Amino acid sequence: MASSTSAMQSILANPMIRMTTRSRVNQFTIPSVYMPSQRRNSSLRVRSMAEEPKKQPIEPATSASPVTPSAPPPKPRAPKVSTKFSDVMAFGGPAPERINGRLAMIGFAAAMAVEVARGQGVFEQISDGGVPWFLGTSVVLTLASLVPLFQGVSVESKSKGVMTSDAELWNGRLAMLGLIALAFTEYVKGGILV
C-alpha cells in the first residue's frame, strides 16, 4: 500500500506529466510526445461461445444410395530435383560442398595414415608422387558423387539413422579444417606432426 502511494505521489509531483480534465477521468498526457487518438470501431461485434450456431437440418440417408468409401488422398510427391549442371554445381547446390567434404575426408585419413606409416609430412607426400593419386581420387569421387545427382536422386532421400546428409556435411567440414590445420602445423613446426 505504501509503495503504491509513493508511486502515485512521484507521478503527480513530476512536472512533465500533468493531469488533464478533458472528457475522460484519469487521463495522463505527456506534452512532448504525440499520441494519436484512437476511435472505437462501431462495427465490431462480440459473440459469446455459449451461443450455438444455427444447425442445418440433417437429411436421413436412404437405402437406395449406398455409401461408397472415398479413395485415400494421393501421397504428396517429393519436389522435383533439378538435374541441370548449373543447378547441381551452383554455389548453394548439392554437389560442391559434398564433393569437397568427401575429398577432404579421404585426404585427411590418407595423409594421417601415410604420416604414421612412413613418417612423411603432407608436403613430402605431395612431392613424392602424391599428385597423381590426388587427381585420380578426385576424378573418381567427383563422378561417383555427380551421377546420382544428375539422375534426380536427392541427397536427403538416402539419409537414414546415423548416416544423415547433415552428418556427412559436418564431417566433411571438419575434415577440411583438419587437413588445413595439419598442413599449417607441419609448415610452422618444420616437420611431421606425429
UniProtKB/TrEMBL annotation:
Keyword ATP-binding recorded: no
Entry keyword annotation includes Transmembrane helix: yes
Coiled-coil intervals, chain numbering: none
Keywords: Membrane, Transmembrane, Transmembrane helix
Subcellular location(s) of the protein: Membrane
Biased composition (Basic and acidic residues): 48-57
Region feature Disordered, mapped onto this chain: 36-81
PANTHER family: UPF0041 BRAIN PROTEIN 44-RELATED
Entry protein name: Early light-induced protein
Organism: Lotus japonicus (Lotus corniculatus var. japonicus)
Lineage, top ranks: Eukaryota, Viridiplantae, Streptophyta, Embryophyta, Tracheophyta
